[in-house]
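Journal club side-thread
Mid-discussion, someone asked how the predicted structure for our own chain would compare to the paper's figures. Pasting it here so we can look after the session.
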Amino acid sequence: MTTSRAVPGARSSALGEPTAAPAVDEPVTAQGAAPAAPGLMLRLLRGQSFSAWLLEVIRFCAVGGTAFVVDVGLFNLLRFGPGELLGDKPLTAKVLSVAVSVLVAWMGNRYWTFAGNKRDSRGRELTLFVAVNLGGMAIAVASLAVSHYVLGLTSPLADNIAANGVGLVLGTAFRYVCYRYVVFTGDAGHRRR
């Protein structure tokens, strides 16, 4: 004698045999393929594959690393280098070092990282890029100001941790999100894969 088990959602046929469960709205994928990415993930990737997005992040980090070396090097040269040109003006030194590193970042991101997403209007893109970098600079300068003037941590190490550690991490995250979703939003059809 054979027994049949009830399948959740199954209906019985006229002969008492269970039938298939009712269809559920699920994304259909090819056999062996990964399930479709959720809508939010597709929007975040802007139609890119995960590997293309990862390559974009690696390029962004390489450009950012170069700009970081320029920023930190120039900041320390102005503050503590020969002649200590801006030895008693840490905020001015930071503003100048960030301004130069922004030019480095602009070239690298426009022509390498986000080359496939350049806008047709270079002036509008440059204006947005400068605005985003002013926001990123404000984050780094605010970190330095709090450390140096509010907390009274005035040593070279403390200034570097505040400006080039905390400020850099927060400013970099802000810049990447804004570059990707505000500044470099040109025609995706020209995006390199």
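Post-session note: The chain has five helices and no strands.
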